[in-house]
Prior knowledge:
The structure is a single chain. Helix 1 packs parallel to helix 3. The two termini are 26 Å apart. The chain is of the alpha+beta class and 113 residues long. The protein has helices spanning 30-50, 60-63, 66-81, 89-100, and strands at 2-3, 7-9, 16-18, 21-24, 55-58.
Amino acid sequence: MCADGARIHDLRTGTVHKAKVHALGGGGSDRAETVRCFAVLLAVARAANRGAIIRLHIDATQAGRSGPRQALLDAVDVALEAGAVPQTYRQLDVARIGRARGLVQPGRAEPAA
Length: 113
């Protein structure tokens, strides 16, 4: 797997998944930071409701600040409430193969028994 800011590439199969990175923080004034964090929360909620892949990013220096850190936790909560399932890149590949074979139920990362 190889990922950039907008996609995840499976180098073995050539499959490309659309998966934008939602970045939190970024400096600037406190007011601008608040607006950016709120915008990320809205974007994550929309993506989760569409069933899209959600990837979150926070810079280590921003993770020490209460605003971006809380926004990250809120974004995870919003995504989980909308039915998102936490997955690794490997699980993403397994789920894709399973769906193609009819083995994975929507909203589940692992093949059905």
